[in-house]
Write a structure and sequence with these properties.
Blueprint (H helix, E strand, L loop, with lengths): L10 H11 L7 H11 L3 H10 L3 E12 L5 H4 L13 E13 L5 E5 H4 L4 E5 L5 E10 L4 E6 L22 E6 L7 E12 L9 E4 L11 E4 L4 E8 L7 E5 H14 L5 E2 L2 E5 L16 E6 L4 H4 L7 E5 L2 E2 L5 H8 L5 E8 L2 E8 L1 E2 L16
Antiparallel strand pairs: 1-2, 1-4, 2-3, 3-6, 4-5, 5-6, 7-8, 7-10, 8-9, 9-12, 10-11, 11-12, 13-20, 14-15, 15-16, 16-17, 16-18, 18-19
Helix pairs in contact: 1-2
């Protein structure tokens, strides 16, 4: 899940243009009004930043890495005749920076998993300059979310609320706060460019795209709406693009954090099927009026779906009462389903609709794939 993020722009420019357009055509007045708008600030953003900035933290981590003593060993091997052959390997500290934000007075902090993965030491720096040691409560590589907690109680911690990312609209103004390239508490602003983006990061892809400027070091920082609510966790960018960044929606983060708090890990459902997209060309063959649902391409032997009678070639059109509009809907609904519960699954087979009862099992963790180089972390 390789990731970062990059975004920009502000409502100040739009407000300025509107104000200039409405200025009466009086000699000299328009020029004076335009100049005052250009040098002025948007009090809405200023007040918003003042309110939310204290809850954003700088996260620094360190870990020990092994460095080959012979830089040419990879090419020539460790033969003793080499002038570099007898140099022993050495260890050094590798340090990195990221961002995060406090979500409750108890000192819980949300950040990205890739910010803290493998770290031997983690410290956070508050906006007021205080540095605090933290511990990892839990991590979820599949959504790239990690939950930290301040080791010792701290008074007067500023917090940020999680908003409802399902209500996010394309075009609404947002700000991003983080520590790009170690420049602490940098604020950028932009708009929501798109929602529901799939970037190949994993089975639960559902990113908010934004153009608020984000760079390395911003990972784990908040994407905030004009109400002061966190609607996303800044996570990834397109390496070759500008103003194309991605944030994990707050509703996904909320569900993950709740489990990390309670169990230290995320438990997800599993029914044992592999699926593919129902294309416009395939839809008529299955008796579908439109291309929707998830076409079952494989059923795991002995799995919950197989036990319930599901077959290859079935089209899953609803899971637990929720319509499957896109093949990517199914993994999300299954993951959130209660373990051990008989769940209704509506399928289309031989152009006829029927409902099966599938007992959802727990998804067993598998090794996490290395992130793609095409979507670097921030």
């Amino acid at each position: 899940m390789k990731r970062r993020s990059s975004y920009a722009l502000t409502s100040a420019a739009l407000v300025m243009v509107m104000m200039i357009t409405l200025v009466p055509a009086q000699p000299g007045f328009a020029a004076k009004r335009a100049a005052s708008e250009i040098v002025g600030t948007n009090p809405g953003f200023v007040d918003l930043v003042d309110r939310v900035k204290p809850a954003v933290v700088n996260i620094s981590t360190s870990r020990t890495v092994r460095v080959p003593g012979n830089p040419f060993q990879h090419f020539f091997g460790p033969f003793r005749g080499s002038p570099f052959g007898d140099i022993p390997d050495r260890e050094r500290k590798q340090r990195s920076l990221g961002s995060g934000f406090v979500i409750d007075p108890g000192g819980h902090i949300i950040t990205n998993n890739h910010v803290v993965a493998g770290a031997e030491e983690i410290r956070v720096k508050l906006a007021d300059g205080r540095e605090l040691p933290v511990q990892v409560v839990g991590r979820d590589p599949k959504t790239d979310i990690a939950l930290l907690k301040v080791v010792s109680p701290v008074k007067d911690l500023q917090t940020l609320p999680l908003g409802d990312s399902d209500n996010v609209k394309v075009g609404e103004w947002v700000i991003a706060i983080g520590n790009p390239f170690g420049l602490a508490l940098t604020v950028t602003q932009g708009i929501v460019s798109a929602t529901g983006r799939v970037i190949g990061a994993g089975p639960y892809d559902d990113f908010i795209q934004t153009d608020a400027a984000i760079n390395p070091g911003n990972s784990g920082g908040p994407l905030i709406n004009l109400k002061g609510e966190v609607i996303g966790i800044n996570t990834a960018i397109v390496a070759a693009g500008q103003g194309i960044g991605f944030a994990v929606p707050s509703n996904i983060a909320r569900a993950v954090v709740a489990q990390l708090k309670e169990k230290g890990k995320v438990v997800r459902g599993w029914i044992g099927v592999s699926t593919q997209t129902v294309t416009p060309e395939l839809a008529p063959a299955f008796g579908l009026k439109e291309p929707k649902g998830a076409l079952v391409s494989e059923v795991a032997a002995g799995g919950p779906a197989a036990t319930a009678g599901m077959k290859r070639g079935d089209v899953i059109v609803a899971f637990n009462g929720k319509e499957i509009r896109n093949v990517l809907d199914l993994p999300k609904w299954v993951a959130d389903a209660p373990i051990g519960k008989d769940t209704p699954v509506t399928i289309v087979r031989d152009k006829k609709e029927m409902t099966l009862r599938v007992k959802v099992a727990e998804l067993k963790e598998q090794p996490v794939q290395q992130p793609s180089r095409k979507r670097p972390r921030s």
